[in-house]
Amino acid sequence: MAKENRDPRSSKGVVLLGANRISSSIAHALAHSGYDVHIVTQSKEPSSPTPHTTYHYSDLSSASLRPLLESLNPTLLISTTSGGNFDLQTSIIDIAISAGVLRFIPAEFSHDTSNPEICERLPPHKERKRVIDHLRSLASEGKIEWCGIATGVLLDHGLLSGDLGFELKWQSATIHGDGAQKFPASSVEWIGQAVVAAVEHWEEVRNQYIYLHGLVTSGNEVVRTLEKATGQTWEIGRVDVEDTLREAEQRIKRGFPDAGMFLVGRSVLYDAEVDAVGAFSKGEGKTKLGLKGESLEMLVEGVVHQYQHHGKADCGCG
Question: Which of 31-45, 49-63, 229-243 holds the top average pLDDT?
């Protein structure tokens, strides 16, 4: 009963599910803001704790996760793992409620899952939308508070990996469509800042789906910024969005579903019919939470710097 009576605003305990680049960003930002962060991983490999951050193992079953949550007694649980797995996410939510957790942030941190075109093209996002609907229902019954955070595409990671069609090694880019279509994006570091802002302004964001992207850009703008950062003229290839979708369908039919869905994911950014930026451009989430946004130039310069040091996330160059 003590959990039900505590004031969540006075608690600095947060549990993060998942060990990945997003959870690392969130953990770092929360710890820097004075929160006690507990990272729950499904790996039994030992991890060394740092100030304000400890690691715990759980297979995410009720028998494993519930006693862990009860012992840690957090006010907030944040999921960054398997966002497209509806059954797992709802199981985690139910376990959190049974353990007395008051607040939950689901594994979003990507495209707008309220956009029906995105959900149609990217099935995992349709499942994320189901999770949000489940949370709305539970919140209406007073069982838990929640906040979903859409941040757009992970631009720095996408540029470093080449997943978005920008090849730093060859200084070439594949642009789908005319390259003028706007899309929302964020850096990995920005996601941590966005989560801290939401946590510290919980009353303004609770039981809402909010849009906290770092910036809005386009394929053409990214190329121009890469050319400036590298001091080189990039070779640009252009492909119609419709041709991209046809190629994706062919790859899937030939037995390469991952390669096909990879192209479908790119199409979401460049297709005007999808309008990936729509809800982001209308939302005032950043202003409400005092966030200023990111600079495309600084983000790209950071990416080029990382690439020149073998693509490492932290080259130690200060």
Answer: 229-243
Neighbours of 241 (CB within 10 A): 20
State phi, psi for 109 to the nearest 5 degrees.
55, 45
Q: What is the DSSP string of 182-219?
A: EEEEE-HHHHHHHHHHHHHTHHHHTTEEEE--SEEEEH
> What are the φ and ψ backbone dihedral angles of 153, each rounded to 5 degrees?
-75, 145
Angle, helix 296-308 to helix 219-230, in steps of 10 degrees: 50
Tell me the torsion sign for CA atoms 297, 170, 219, 307: negative
For residue 100, what are its two tokens? 């007395």
Distance CA 17, CA 317 (A): 30
According to DSSP, the residues that pair with 39 across neighbouring strands are: 16, 55
- Between helix 21-32 and helix 188-200 the angle, nearest 10°, is 50
Is 317's pLDDT higher than 60? no
Transcribe 110-164 into DSSP letters: SS-TT-HHHHHH-HHHHHHHHHHHHHHHHHHTTS-EEEEEE--EEHHHHHHHSTT
Q: What is the mean pLDDT of the chain?
A: 92
Report the candidate in 188, 171, 156 with the shortest Cα–Cα distance to residue 27: 188
